[in-house]
Amino acid sequence: MSTKEILDPCCGSKMFWFDKNNKDAVFLDCRKETVIAKDSSMKSGVQKISISPDFISSVEKIPFTDESFSLVIFDPPHLLNVGKTSWMAKKYGTLPKDWKPFIQNAFSECFRVLKINGTLIFKWSEKDIKASEILKLIEFKPIIGNRDKKRGTKWIIFFKSNSEAHNA
């Protein structure tokens, strides 16, 4: 059991974190590595990405007990149509070819470790798959999120109420 209240089970390089060493958070990822690649947008021409989770684990098998965290921030890999060794794949990870069970299992695990009255923040890029397709796969219902029709990044918020905990 963790004494920390926040879980990021697919932390990658912690890109959107203001404090990449937040003392209240546990960072998980299925890989630990440093990636260096040519990047013409960078002044040096090189970009370095460090993926350094606290624990190496699959989001499909989160190594914590039920109802351990008040907040889960779930930003899974979202790319399907990219080469496995491409810069984008190295930076963001890739979805498995059989991605639907992966998403279903990952959501189930995130909700399992989420405390009752806890919040799950889901971030999804619609580059290859629309967020609406993801929401059709899972039994959990969001409470708020951005609904614009443009493809892009979606932020969707879930709340685990007592009644939802009993329905799951």
SSE inventory with pairings:
Layout: E1 6-8, E2 25-29, E3 33-38, E4 46-51, E5 55-56, E6 69-74, H1 87-92, H2 99-113, E7 114-125, H3 131-137, E8 144-145, E9 153-160, H4 162-167
Describe the structure.
The strands form two sheets. A seven-stranded mixed sheet has the order 5-2-1-6-7-9-8. The chain is globular, with a radius of gyration of 16 Å. A hairpin with a 7-residue loop joins strand 3 and strand 4. It is an alpha/beta fold and 168 residues long. The protein has four helices and nine strands; from the N terminus they run E-E-E-E-E-E-H-H-E-H-E-E-H. The chain has one domain (6-167): Rossmann fold.
Short summary:
The chain has 168 residues and is an alpha/beta fold. It contains four helices and nine strands; from the N terminus they run ββββββααβαββα.
What distinguishing features does this structure have?
two-stranded antiparallel sheet, 20% helix, alpha/beta, globular, 168 residues, single chain, 9 strands, Rossmann fold
Distance between the termini: 21 Å
Basic shape = globular
Query: Helix and strand string, N-terminal first?
Result: EEEEEEHHEHEEH
Q: Output the number of helix runs.
A: 4
Classify the secondary structure makeup into a structural class. alpha/beta
Radius of gyration: 16 Å
* Total number of strands: 9
User: Which residue ranges are poorly predicted, with pLDDT under 50 across at least 5 consecutive positions?
Assistant: none
- Domain count: the total is 1
Percentage of residues in DSSP E strands: 25-35%
| CATH class membership | Alpha Beta
